[in-house]
Amino acid sequence: MLNIVLVEPEIPQNCGNIARTCAATGARLHLVRPLGFDISEKAVKRAGLDYWHLVEVADYDGLDDLFRRHPEAAEDCWLATTKAPQDYTHARFRDGCWLFFGKETAGLPEDFRRAHYARCIRLPIRAEARSLNLSNSVAVVTFEALRQLDFPGLQKTGEMADS
Question: Which of 27, 55, 60, 65 is a Cys-bridge partner for 2, taking CB atoms 3.0 to 4.6 Å apart?
Fold first, then answer.
């Protein structure tokens, strides 16, 4: 199972889309505070996130709290950042790895990126474009990791396969 970590996410719609990706893939969702939105049960119901019950969600008071509670995250983490020296296809993802994504306006903290320099990956995009939407970036990296793992626990064919 993959671990998707959003560090200080700001936009609730992005988090909702990412939660849906986690629901569809079985990935765990880890939210590092501060958050730019409310994740209370009342707020989730109001947003109509009818798949939220399929998502294992944990939240943390900061990166230090996450690493204190999950020291294994430091052993197998990948940091998605536009500033990375290598693209995501160079990563060799393992079951249980931790995929980190930064907030929409600023990305991941610089000191965190420097501490994990060899684990920084990026999605190749045109030089004129700043970045992809956060939820799109999460989906791309998540499905590449799952592809490398042969899509564990996921349905690989649709109903047309029986035709």
Answer: 27
- 33 Cβ contact list (under 8 Å, min separation 6): 8, 59, 60, 61, 62
pLDDT, residue 89, reads 95
Helix (H) or strand (E) holding 86: strand 86-87
Q: What is the pLDDT of residue 99?
A: 98
At 74, list the tokens. Answer: 């430091």
pLDDT score of 162? 75
pLDDT of residue 42: 63
Distances (CA, A) of 23 to 65, 76, 81, 129, 137: 24, 22, 24, 29, 16
pTM of the model: 0.93
Residue 50's SS3 state is coil
Cis peptide before 124 (omega within 30 of 0): no
In Å, how far from its chain's centre is CA 116?
Answer: 16
Q: Are 100 and 77 in contact (CB under 8 A)?
A: yes
Which parts of the chain have pLDDT scores under 50?
none
Look up residue 88 and give its two tokens.
Answer: 């995501």
**3 forms bridges with which residues in the sheet?**
28, 98
Distance CA 147, CA 34 (A): 32
